[in-house]
Design a protein that fits this description.
9 helices; single chain; 5-stranded parallel β-sheet
């Protein structure tokens, strides 16, 4: 077995040395950059699957006490994406087609090995495409999951409405904000208006009409009433998507639940008003005390001045309490 990084790893399931040599010769003639491992029984095959980690399996159809069908079934349970090509001199075309329907990648006859290389290249290309699609799908799912979590943390829901049909798609968080189940994400364009608080309805309609008139962006604050009667404060922002000739085709936007922020702001205002009231009462108290103390203190200081004058005669000493 040769060994080198970045080479295609080929696992050969074969017991005849002459057939092994023919396979390797065909692979080398094709200038494939590969390394290989050869196994001839089930135990060695299972071990090699887990340690050699092949990119491709070439298997004889029939081996003593073991066979290509068994090898394929084992491979499918552990590494279903690895291409599996049967190389045989005994398998009939009907049997080969039946195995391909069950998932075997392809087959080649030992007396026509010239057909093997194109099949190997096609199989490796297809599995790389599958892996790329699988990776892209996983990345997309991760991105969508991250977006859902971010929207949930920020209490921001997103939406998009197709103007031609009037059908909108709401994100899970927007459904949650409106008290709807997450699977109620298909809504008509007028659904939002039906939730707006009656006291805010005229204002919201005016904002939407202004936006429709000149295709401008909108942003406003309002209240909604959920079906359970709960009132929520929201911030809404939207904009139009235009086609190449400037015709609106979609409108999309965000909804943010700012109820907790509004409650916090209200509490701050109440605290501010209460603090201002306390400060005002404290000012009045200080003024009252000062006023009430001024007269007796003035009288006391006048009396003290008379006593000083009587005791020391005409004195220039002057006592001042208040300027």
């Amino acid at each position: 077995m040769l060994s080198s990084e970045n080479k295609t790893k080929i696992l050969i399931v074969e017991h005849e040395q002459d057939d092994i040599d023919l396979l390797l010769n065909e692979l080398k003639k094709a200038n494939l950059d590969f390394e290989w491992n050869v196994v001839a029984n089930e135990k060695a095959f299972m071990k090699s699957l887990k340690t050699f980690l092949p990119d491709l399996i070439l298997s004889d159809y029939s081996l003593p006490g073991f066979g290509g069908v068994t090898a394929f079934e084992i491979k499918q349970k552990i590494f279903p994406l690895i291409p599996f090509i049967l190389v045989s001199g005994t398998i009939g075309e009907e049997k080969a087609v039946d195995l391909i329907k069950k998932g075997v990648t392809d087959y080649a006859l030992k007396d026509k090995l010239y057909s093997l290389i194109p099949k190997i290249k096609r199989a490796l290309h297809e599995v790389r495409e599958l892996e790329l699609n699988h990776k892209t799908k996983n990345e997309l799912l991760l991105s969508e999951s991250t977006l859902r979590k971010a929207q949930e943390i920020a209490h921001i829901g997103s939406w998009r409405t197709e103007l031609a049909t009037g059908i909108g798609i709401w994100s899970e968080e927007k459904c949650r904000i409106f008290g709807l189940p997450s699977d109620a994400n298909l809504q008509l364009s007028g659904t939002f208006i039906s939730y707006v608080h009656p006291e805010d309805l005229k204002f919201v309609k005016n904002e939407i009409e202004k936006s429709e008139a000149d295709l401008s962006n909108t942003s406003f604050y309002c209240r909604i009433i959920r079906e359970d009667g709960n009132i929520r404060n929201i911030y809404s922002e939207s904009r139009y998507e235009l086609n190449e000739v400037g015709k609106p085709i979609n409108i999309y936007g965000i909804i943010q639940d700012i109820t907790e922020r509004k409650l916090a702001e209200k509490e701050l205002i109440i605290n501010y008003i209460e603090l201002k009231k306390i400060n005002s009462e404290l000012d009045r108290f200080v003024y009252s005390i000062s006023h009430e103390l001024r007269s007796p203190l003035t009288a006391m200081m006048g009396l003290y001045s008379l006593i000083v004058q009587k005791k020391y005669g005409n004195s220039n000493t002057r006592i001042t309490l208040f300027n």
